[in-house]
Amino acid sequence: MPDTRSYSISDLAAEFGVTTRTLRFYEEKGFLAPERRGRVRYFSAADRVRLRLILRGRRLGLSLEESAEIIDLYQAPEGGKRQLTALLGKLAERRAQLEKQAADLAATLADLAGVEDACRAALADLNPARSR
Amino acid sequence: MPDTRSYSISDLAAEFGVTTRTLRFYEEKGFLAPERRGRVRYFSAADRVRLRLILRGRRLGLSLEESAEIIDLYQAPEGGKRQLTALLGKLAERRAQLEKQAADLAATLADLAGVEDACRAALADLNPARSR
DNA sequence: ATGTGTATTGACGTTAACGTCAACGTCATT
DNA sequence: AATGACGTTGACGTTAACGTCAATACACAT
Q: Three-class SS of residue A42?
């Protein structure tokens, strides 16, 4: 069974720690497309996954546009040689960017680790009794 | 010699690929504090390093405030036990956030790698002659 | 003296990503 | 019939991080 359950707007909002306004905004901008019965929104499991990915992108500092573009790549292994080659190009671009970001991240973490060490050393110096 | 050279605003802008407006904005907000002779700005090597760190933070999706806070941590291993402990707390927070980001990044890269594989497979399928 | 280049300070404009109302409908309870 | 809980659509407000002028200053070369 393909998980036929649906989620209300406040279900999803609560689960992911965003406001309903955010979800309506995402729909308005085309980043989400929940089913509509009357005016009411019903989010599917697929919508939920998509939201999760969008928020992951957000935590990475990507714009909603960028997140959406990447997510669309996930669904795209179709088309002729031309399309596939173009897709590979886009993937390479993204990968390069994300890998640069990973490098920046590693550098920052290393810097913080350095400070943390110095900090512990200073603390130990300050209280030589119970070192460790 | 402690690298006594100084940089003009457009020097730095060109080197880091930002506009002079950006640098003035950073000063206005207190993220940079170049020397002033008359009205003209002279950026030191230290200013340059700080800018580099700010931009690194920016690439990570941090706000300027956040970058500045982190950078200030770098200069902070001073003060009494109370200060040091507080600093360690902040460092732990930051590290947690950045490590979550690293996880998100890894997941995204893995997803992209999956698409890339599928894409290559599709291409190979499409042209069985010269595989590899 | 006139231009050319680089610097400055306002000051208003812009975009993304929502926040914050207001005004309203619907359904289940009380 | 009224109260709440949840949903809806506008529509205007907000913040960060600059962009985009305009007007001005200063140094130097022609």
A: strand
Does pTM top 0.85 for this prediction? yes
Cβ partners under 8 Å of residue B107, min gap 6: A56
The one-character DSSP state at A4 is -
Burial class, A67, CB count within 10 angstroms (exposed 0-12 / middle 13-18 / buried 19+): buried
Furthest CA-CA distance within chain A: 71
Residue that the structure tokens 């402990």 belong to: B85
B49 in contact with A at a CB cutoff of 8 Å? no
A56: closest CA among B100, B57, B117, B62? B100
pLDDT attached to residue A131: 47
Least confident residue range of A112-116, B65-69, B127-131: B127-131
Q: Which of A69, A105, A127 to mutate to test the interface with B (most CBs of B within 10 A)?
A: A105
Q: Is the dihedral of CA A114, A115, A118, A121 positive or negative?
A: negative
* Distance separating alpha carbons of residues A102 and A53, to the nearest angstrom: 18
Give the mean model confidence (pLDDT) for residues B56-72.
Answer: 98
Mean model confidence pLDDT for chain A: 94
Q: Is the CB of B64 under 7 A from strand D?
A: yes
